[in-house]
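Revision sheet: structure tokens.
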Amino acid sequence: MRQRDYEQALEAVVARTRRVYPEAPFGIAVASACSLQNPAGWEPVRAAQRAVAARLPGAFLSADSDAIPAQRRWRYDGCHFSAAGARWLASQYREAINRLPWPAP
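Predicted:
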């Protein structure tokens, strides 16, 4: 996937959401499809997620699921999250949301 293609698709998702919830902050996760198995192949997706979060007003980076180790404790099959991995990811989302200014703009 090309970075620009992903950026355009993600921007379309944000735009659709903004039509219904124009004032809501929009969290963008940095995540790819099991990038642990092919990190370089998914970097355009990760770069697009970071770029869109930086460019769009009201958008912010939330969690980075690729930061969760591939160890069995966190990913039961080296890719998908175990319960402990899901809790780790949830805590990243919570921390990102807690950093937002409230009330949200």
